[in-house]
Write a structure and sequence with these properties.
heterodimer; A: about 350 residues; mainly alpha; ABC transporter involved in vitamin B12 uptake, BtuC; 16 helices; globular; B: about 350 residues; about 70% helix; membrane (chain A); transmembrane helix (chain A); transmembrane transporter activity (chain A); Inner-membrane translocator (chain A); ABC_transp_permease (chain A)
């Protein structure tokens, strides 16, 4: 797909981002804000890190929806991913985690998410669960059992300070001005996410498996007629989405370095924001990652405002991403949902 | 969604709850606690003695109200996940309107009744407006209600949390709380001599159920709501504006959530505090409503059941070392199983209990 074609198809999304950016710029000029003191290299770096869990979750979620299953349980998967990574890191290391334990914890969390994702996929596909209600249920189960795991291990909803992932400094490349510190002297998970986003986009648009996924959501009868098992395609996509959201939660934990289980837990709606990110990105993995970056930036704005001496209460600045989501959905509400989303498919044989 | 006969619904609700509890008990045992003791304290916490029953009814009152709020919307096919936020906004509106108008009215029972009325009107209004907002966003900008209402929950918690910390904080309060509402602004204790529960509160909940039942099942508006939820084109042909119906449905749902917030403020709390710590009635209400198949009358037994669970949860939190978060997880499992009637239908067919295939 050429860029012009892409821009044409996603004109609304691009217009939405343009409106947001222009709005921010006008506000900055009108209020006489020192723009370059707010948008610093550190800010971009922090925004990218904040965006990674959202982007990973969004990429998984859009695969499921493309295949015709609306997985709104991703928030729950993220909570399980984060809680599992935290407890695993603690257990594997015997209480004093190091860098290798962080990676092992992420891996363990992905495997556990895989098990949950398979169970969830069976309920959704084999037993035709109501996708919205079951997805919500998963969120509540996460809100209960995530902190429950923390209480079992630490007798508190919050973990003590664990290990967070170190920045990876790529020699030579890290010395490039601006791009160096942003991409080559940061959490390696940022790079991993960027590569995954591009790979997910290529896979969806340029491989036959990608076409199967899209056909399962748009025209399952045709796919069935072509001799491909719609159910198996959907299983694969839903399981992938659960694993990606679990990975998103684990990455969130690896960057934060400790688990918070009070209130809506440390995940705090990032799974829901992930869903909006892929709607905003118009079901394009790269678009979803860019949209995640917008929300990551809103999330990190607080530190920037403080450094330039604008004292908006933390409690209110923390609400920017949520307000941003509502704004995005309002300005750019209707999405091109795949036509067979939400309908169980039964082969006639 | 989830269509089934009344008997089937009852069977599914019972089976869902039983299966969820079974999994809960298994987890308790796997985590190394005594499952029998857990079950005993579960029952004791719900119905063991007058204070336990009063506590159960206190929670039930809130679950019935928030459950009806959810049912109004779900019945009309509008996924209002924002009852928690509407509940919070209604609650703070009740408390502040009472605090602000208290100096204008005489002290004592008459003034107290007047203030309660003012508080309820303010709470209902605020909840309604906060519900109408995502309704309007859906109707006129096609913004997904599930997501906007979840975001509005976060925003309500954040903004009200900031308000009680700063401008609305009572003078000299160390904790981030508003002032207390005057002593005489409370429901009289009838039957139960409990500080946090009054039969009046339960009566308000049951009256709301009755009103909503009549509106939903016996009025033109209720008919339009349900048809436009399930058969938008049919409703449109018969001259019903789908947009207007969505906004009205969300407003009505938010108003009921606002009443729940007012009952919470007047009967239980007596002041307002950071909403991140007041309980998740608006979320659990989703389970209550689904368990009742979104039927206003079914909300009453479902609300009683959840009141019992919540009450048992607080008992377990005090008297055992089993983490209370377990109860939240079990509630999630109940919702999950309610969403999968097919699971039970297939199980019933396999075991020869009934059903057809």
């Amino acid at each position: 797909m050429s860029f012009a074609e892409y821009a044409k198809r996603n004109s609304l999304g691009i217009a939405g981002i343009a409106v947001l950016v222009a709005g921010a710029a006008i506000a900055a000029v009108a209020m006489d804000l020192p723009f370059w003191e707010i948008v610093t290299i550190g800010f971009v770096e922090r925004s990218l890190q904040a965006a990674t869990p959202i982007a990973l979750t969004a990429i998984g979620g859009l695969y499921a929806e493309k295949s015709g299953v609306f997985n709104i349980g991703v928030e729950g998967f993220m909570i399980f991913g984060a809680a599992t990574a935290a407890t695993m890191m603690w257990i594997i290391s015997g209480g004093s985690p190091g860098q290798s334990d962080v990676w092992l914890a992420i891996l363990a969390s992905v495997l556990v998410s895989l098990v949950f994702a398979v169970l969830f996929a069976v309920l959704l596909i084999r037993y035709e669960a109501d996708q919205i209600v079951a997805g919500l249920a998963l969120w509540f189960i996460g809100l209960g059992f995530g902190p429950f795991m923390a209480v079992l291990v630490w007798e508190s909803r919050n973990s003590p300070s664990l290990e967070s992932i170190n920045d990876l400094t790529v020699p030579v490349l890290a010395d490039i001005p601006v791009l160096g510190p942003i991409f080559f002297d940061t959490s390696p998970l940022v790079m991993v996410t960027a590569v995954l986003a591009v790979a997910a986009w290529k896979f969806l648009n340029d491989t036959k498996y990608g076409y199967w996924i899209q056909a399962a959501g748009e025209n399952p009868e045709a796919l069935d007629t072509a001799g491909i098992d719609v159910t198996r395609v959907r299983y694969a996509a839903v399981i992938f989405s659960g694993v990606m959201a679990g990975l998103g939660g684990a990455v969130l934990l690896a960057q934060a370095g400790s688990f918070t289980g009070t209130g809506e837990t440390m995940v705090g709606g990032r799974g829901w924001i992930g869903i909006v990110a892929y709607l905003f990105g118009n079901y394009n993995p790269i678009g979803a990652a860019v949209a995640a970056l917008v929300f990551g930036g809103l999330d990190m704005l607080q530190i920037q405002l403080q450094t330039v001496g604008i004292n908006v209460p933390n409690r209110l600045v923390n609400l920017f991403p949520y307000a941003g989501v509502i704004l995005v959905l309002t300005v750019w509400g209707s999405t091109q949902t795949p036509s067979a989303v939400g309908e169980p498919y039964e082969s006639e044989e | 969604m989830l269509r089934a006969s009344v008997v089937e619904r009852l069977a599914i609700a019972t089976a869902s709850t039983a299966l969820a509890l079974l999994i809960g008990v298994t987890i308790v045992a796997a985590a190394g606690y005594d499952p029998v003791q857990f079950l005993v304290s579960l029952i004791n916490g719900a119905v063991g003695g007058e204070s336990a029953i009063a506590r159960t009814l206190r929670f039930s009152t809130l679950f019935i109200l928030t459950g009806v709020a959810v049912a109004v919307a779900f019945r009309a096919g509008v996924f209002n996940i924002g009852v928690q936020g509407q509940f919070v906004v209604g609650g703070i509106a009740t408390v502040m309107s009472i605090i602000w108008t208290a100096p204008l009215l005489p002290e004592g029972t008459v003034g107290g009744a007047g203030l309660i009325l003012i508080g309820f009107v303010a709470g209902t209004f605020a909840g309604g407006v906060y519900g109408a907002l995502p309704g309007a966003l859906k109707a006129y900008a096609d913004a997904n209600v599930i997501i906007t209402t979840i975001m509005l929950n976060f925003i309500a918690t954040g903004v009200v949390g900031w308000l009680v910390q700063n401008p609305f904080r009572g003078e000299g309060n160390a904790a981030p709380n508003t002032e207390r509402i005057p002593e005489y602004v409370s429901f009289p204790s009838v039957v139960f001599d409990s500080s946090g529960f009054s039969v009046i509160g339960l009566a308000i909940a049951l009256a709301t159920v009755a009103v909503i039942y009549v509106v939903m099942e016996r009025s033109r508006f209720g008919y339009d709501m349900v048809t436009s939820g399930y058969q938008e084109s049919a409703a449109t042909y018969s001259g019903v504006s789908a947009k207007r119906t969505v906004v009205l449905t969300m407003t009505l749902s938010g108003m009921v959530a606002g009443i729940a917030g007012a009952v919470f403020a007047v009967m239980i709390q007596g002041y307002y505090t950071d909403p991140s710590g007041i309980g998740t009635y608006g979320f659990d209400a989703i389970a209550v409503s689904l368990l009742a198949a979104n039927n206003p009358l079914g909300i009453v037994p479902a609300g009683l059941l959840f009141g019992g669970l919540e009450s048992a949860g607080s008992h377990i939190g005090i008297y055992t070392d089993v983490p209370v978060q377990l109860i939240d997880g079990v509630i999630g499992l109940v919702i999950l199983f309610v969403a999968v009637p097919e699971l039970f239908r297939m199980a019933a067919v396999r075991t020869g209990l009934g059903g057809d295939r």
